[in-house]
């Protein structure tokens, strides 16, 4: 009986979810593309250091490598939680 | 109706640069099982059927499969690695298709290790095919981003990135796009980009309508490249591989029509995408086929 009912049940529309997740991860991976291989490692170690003081998630650390003519800029951004420790 | 291909050049205006007559096209994807070999076989057939001299090469060393899709598995005597290592001539290794005279298949090696494929060796084979006056060389890439995949794309002028409308396939394809833009001869020599095209396979318009599957436009938007074809999901693909007949040769199949459209677009034609909308069901099909 439940199988029969299952035939009529619609699957939830998840395509938009897929698209949104892809949009984010692809943008992130494109950003790191061509950068040195140590960037993900650096990100991980940075996470450990920051976590000694403040609890944050890995996605709160952003690493960008920008190329201008002749030099590269490594941009690190760590967003801390809203709550003030003091 | 919404997705129109932006291929500006009509066939007549094509040969602006007449020096190099051969075009090398890699069929790649990153992810396995999305339809690279099916696509390579059908596009090669489609191009050859229009009078082009075509060679299709299986780069999947150790996992030869193109021969099965083309239905010539029992005629493989020498393979790609044999040619590279000088065990035979290229002419001896090229298998001429029984259906279309101008179509030639070079099988992957089944036994030897992957290191047998060298950059120099691949270049020598490609150069010889160019010298032989081939119009198109299709390189059927293995899955992954290892040596075989790298060499399949390295000398390419164009890339057909085969994608299923599904998250892991799309992500892997984007990774491949990154490699095409950096790890190819064209990229390294600053000789213009490898021209990238998106080919969606296993497309199910019904599920797209229901919001269960990403649409052509969704995938196109994420990856940011031109769509050269959308191949509907169909049982015909399995039947074709079962029988060793490239699916493009199945006259009754929408898959064949979709691949043939992609061939037209490869040749510069500006065709609207077909088979991307759910077919309107007649009363008969509604009653008898659900």
TL;DR?
The complex is a heterodimer of chains A (86) and B (290). Chain A has 86 residues and is an alpha+beta fold.
Describe the structure.
The complex is a heterodimer of chains A (86) and B (290). Chain A has 86 residues and is an alpha+beta fold. Helix content of chain A is 44%, strand content 19%. Chain A contains 3 helices and 2 strands. In chain A, a hairpin with a 2-residue loop joins strand 1 and strand 2. The two termini of chain B are 25 Å apart. The N terminus of chain B is likely disordered. An 8-stranded mixed β-sheet of chain B has the order 3-4-2-5-1-6-7-8, with helices on both faces. Chains A and B meet through helix 2 of A and helix 7 and helix 10 of B.
List keywords for this structure.
heterodimer; A: 86 residues; alpha+beta; two-stranded antiparallel ribbon; 3 helices; B: 290 residues; alpha/beta; 8-stranded mixed sheet; 13 helices; 8 strands; disordered N terminus
